[in-house]
Write a sequence for this structure.
């Protein structure tokens, strides 16, 4: 009777450790770059949302004759305020006001210090000023 020689196939522990080391090095190099771009994409998304909300506020003004008061806020874009007659909304596609990319409400003041209204997000730190992802995003710059 002939015996067959069995050979084991697979990876050795050393080979697996080398591959994991290479993956860890790549993650260390690529990870920070990806995180940097994620931060800038949130800032860009906030700018786009502010532009959309500002356009909706302009449409509201065309119908009603004035911008919503600070007390009415952005809710006037989706629900008719009690003291408004020529409201032709809702002025947004969705039935609720979007939050900024950091899940905070946008700030709306009228009359604004920089124009007819000020619409802004304070960034991820929810404080005035800041750099990078913490910078303020607004409708007047």
């Amino acid at each position: 009777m002939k015996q067959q020689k069995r050979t084991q196939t697979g990876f050795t522990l050393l080979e697996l450790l080398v591959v994991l080391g290479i993956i860890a090095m790549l993650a260390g190099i690529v990870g920070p770059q990806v995180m940097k771009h994620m931060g800038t994409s949130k800032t860009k998304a906030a700018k786009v949302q502010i532009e959309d909300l500002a356009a909706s506020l302009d449409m509201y003004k065309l119908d009603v004759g004035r911008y919503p008061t600070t007390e009415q806020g952005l809710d006037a874009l989706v629900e008719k305020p009690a003291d408004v007659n020529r409201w032709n909304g809702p002025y947004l596609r969705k039935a609720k006001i979007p939050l900024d990319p950091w899940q905070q409400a946008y700030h709306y003041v009228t009359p604004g210090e920089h124009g007819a209204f000020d619409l802004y997000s304070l960034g991820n730190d929810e404080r005035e000023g800041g750099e990078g992802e913490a910078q303020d995003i607004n409708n007047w710059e």
User: Anything to note?
Assistant: The chain has one domain: 33-138. The two ends are 88 Å apart (CA to CA). The longest strand covers residues 118-121. The chain has a mean pLDDT of 86.
